[in-house]
Amino acid sequence: MDWHHSLFSLCWILWAASRLKVIEAAEGKYAQKLFNDLFEDYSNALRPVEDTDKVLNVTLQITLSQIKDMDERNQILTVYLWIRQIWYDAYLKWDRDQYDGLDTIRIPSDLVWRPDIVLYNKADDESSEPVNTNVVLRYDGLITWDSPAITKSSCVVDVSYFPFDDQQCNLTFGSWTYNGNQVDIFNALESGDLSDFVEDVEWEIHGMPAVKNVITYGCCSEPYPDITFTLILKRKSSFYIVNLLIPCLLISFLAPLSFYLPAASGEKVSLGVTVLLAMTVFQLMVAEIMPPSENVPLIGKYYIATMALITASTALTIMVMNIHFCGAEAKPVPQWARVVILKYMSKILFVYDVGESCASPRHSQERHHHPKDYGKLSELHRKGPRNRDNNIAPKKEINRLLNNDLGSQGGNPKEADSYCARYIALTRNIEYIAKCLKDHRTNNAKGIEWKKVAKVIDRFFMWIFFIMVFAMSILIIAKA
Predict the structure, then answer these.
(1) CA distances for 381 relative to 374, 414, 433, 438, angstroms
(2) 79, 258, 294, 349: least surrounded by Cβ within 10 Å?
(3) Distance, CA of 171 to CA of 124 (rounded, Å)
């Protein structure tokens, strides 16, 4: 039983295959006959209407497949489109019954009349023509022509908010030679077809609405219809945030740190110049992408503002270093600077020197103490020449001091007179050294005060610039 069933199935398959070949051969025979009958007296040079006063309607449908490139600098958009045009040809009709029910045929597009619909805002240097794909011809004269095209169109790019910008690029299609009284254009859908769109790495598609316009140009009195597809794009800013914005933020926060760097290191100005050069490199990178227009992009404004801050910080750093290295030869610190900078601002900004009291400097508490006996000796020596009448008493006092000093060392008191001149000379030398040391400390204290003034100004500018950089960063993030 199974053997008979298998044999029957095989016979049925062979019969169906032979029948299909017969049908295909018949269709090919009728298609050839139809083709010869249709194009025997047909001309593709004339508009296919029975009445020349009648308008030929063309339905246009655009399918966006891919965004190939957006050249912001040259303001050119390159896209890959599928263009479908549908119209009726009054001379390409037939009766299906005469051709074995054949209702459609596919023939080369250059054999039939085609509407000369072109992209008005084309920006391609070369004259690109539609691809000669086949058209689908139906028995009632309906022709459907699907052709792919890579178009380059001009697009007015607004980069004011780059890299957080939105762009609107128009694709305007219309007949080049036929006016609205001869060829009229209709859009098949209210917008472009985005069902087959390939996701782009840089741009997001937020719509492609279509609008029909009828324009009367200055050259002609007839109306010329066109269909404008507006491609709404939003830039994906992640790439630019990682490669342009975040490095700029990090570098800009280095600028205030030049005020925190000690002046004695000699690297304050070098740090500012290095940061300025780094910002210049990023500015040049953005300038190469953007078109040379009056609209400065948002990130470009941020770069310029940051470079201005870095330039100002470098100039202020040079001024502060001049204050720091005033030295002992400079004038004393003015009284208002002592009160405002050293007294109040230093406390507010927490600027204290190591080992220094908050109320008074360390050197003001130090005193130079001579030995008690030698101090008295110096005093007696200074009083001695002034009192010649009473010279005996000072001399006895000097001898007594020297006797006590020599007695403590086990010497002979009678030798006091011989050592008197030596002690007087030694006292004078000690006084001179003490005076020089006092003058040196006074001059050194003057230089220390100027250094502290410079340090307080440095700290003040550091916080000011930190606040400004932080405010600019918040501003650009808010605009994003």
Answers:
(1) 10, 20, 17, 22
(2) 294
(3) 13
Q: How far apart are CA 221 and CA 476, in angstroms?
A: 51
pLDDT profile of the chain (480 residues), mean per 10:
51 46 49 87 88 91 92 90 93 88 89 91 71 88 92 88 89 91 91 90 92 84 91 90 86 82 77 86 83 77 85 83 68 74 76 50 44 44 46 52 50 56 72 67 63 80 86 77
Please, are residues 328 and 290 in contact by the beta-carbon 8 Å criterion?
no
Give me the residue label for tokens 């007296």. Answer: 41
Structure-token pair, residue 433: 């050294």
Whole-number Å distance between alpha carbons of 410 and 2: 148
Long-range Cβ contacts of 122-126 (<8 Å, 24+ apart): 122/151, 122/152, 122/153, 122/154, 123/76, 123/152, 123/153, 123/154, 124/151, 124/152
What pLDDT, on the 0 to 100 scale, is given for residue 329?
A: 62
In the chain, the N- to C-terminal Cα span, in Å, equals: 79
* Separation CA 259–CA 60 (nearest Å): 66
- DSSP secondary structure letter of residue 223: -
What letters, b where the CB count within 10 A reaches 16 and e where it falls short, cover 279-318?
Answer: beebbeebeebbeeeeebbbbbebbebbbebbeebbebbe
At 39, is the secondary structure helix, strand, or coil? coil
Residue 305: its pLDDT value, please?
A: 85
Count Cα neighbours of 203 within 13 Å in the Cβ-side half-sphere: 23
Cα–Cα distance, 113 to 183 (Å, whole number): 13
Q: How far apart are CA 456 and CA 348, in angstroms?
A: 10
Query: Amino acid identity of 51?
Result: D
The dihedral of CA 464, 467, 470, 471: what is its sign? negative
pLDDT of 408 reads: 46
- Per DSSP, what are the bridge partners of residue 104? 138
Which residues are 142's β-sheet partners?
88
Verify cis geometry, omega within 30 degrees of 0, for the bond prior to 163.
yes
Count of positions (residues) in the chain: 480
pLDDT for residue 146: 92
113 within 8 A of 88, measured Cβ to Cβ: no
Q: Which residue has the tokens 């003015």?
A: 334
The C-alpha angle 198, 201, 203, rounded to 5 degrees, equals: 85
Structure tokens at 32: 């050839």
Give the CA distances from residue 212 to residues 116, 186, 187, 190, in Å, rounded to whole numbers and listed in that order.
17, 7, 7, 10
